[in-house]
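Bug report (template v2)

What were you trying to do?
Predict the complex of my protein with calcium ion.

What happened?
Run completed; filing so the output is reviewed.

Input:
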Amino acid sequence: MLSNLDPTPSCHKTLLRSDALYQYMLETSVYPREPEVLKELRECTSRHSWNKMATSPDEGQFLMMLLKLMNAKNTLEVGVYTGYSLLCTALSLPSDGKVIALDIDKEAYEIGAPFIVKAGVAHKVDFRDGPAMDGIDMLLKDESNHGFFDFIFVDADKNNYLNYHKRLIKLVKVGGLIAYDNTLWNGALVASPNDELPKYIRYYMDYILDLNQTLAQDSRIQISQVPISDGITLCRRLI
Ligand code: SAM
Ligand code: CA
């Protein structure tokens, strides 16, 4: 893993250079504003073996801000796990809003489902169990879904992000947003060949590199690479 304390003077502007600063940010600006039910879900998830997969609370706060700014009403999530980002979404939608949530792991979703109920937002959540590609292809079959979604959050199998992109660009409305998560991939994108990287980081790295290149060249979208958490690339559909 690369150090986030690299003092290279080549002047990246990221201020978040230390764990202490991250902790400061969480304690000052994130935790005090985190809805109680999200905190409970986060704490419950932290006892689960794959808890590292969960969306971080600062990223959750960012997603909630985006959704509110956009007045998002119809959204899609690809990759739910125990539902931290899903609950952030459901809490941000109006009462007649909907989030369709796709994941192959129903058991993980069921860990978080009681918190969705407790938050009083279960009526906004449509969880669909199964491979996301099938769920997306099913949505595409119905023409009324084309250009229907205000916001799509993609946080599942990284090797398929580009395959998802080909499809999701049809589902998001013009002016709507697709957000791809983990696009800075633990800093590994700039690792040298000799750097020791966890196996899964190395395995998916080329897919993320390819994704980032492709999104940067895709004239159908405006993009912004936001270095929050593990990096999130916002893609606003232009045409
Ligand atoms: N957004 C979640 C959160 O806020 O906690 C984290 C999602 S986690 C990083 C990735 C999820 O993608 C896992 O729950 C996994 O089951 C799911 N996933 C992986 N491959 C998938 C596929 N082909 N179809 C559907 N879900 C998949
Ligand atoms: Ca993620």
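What did the reviewer find?
The pocket of calcium ion (ligand 2) is lined by residues 55, 155, 181-182 (CB under 6 Å). Residues 1-11 have pLDDT under 50 and may be disordered.
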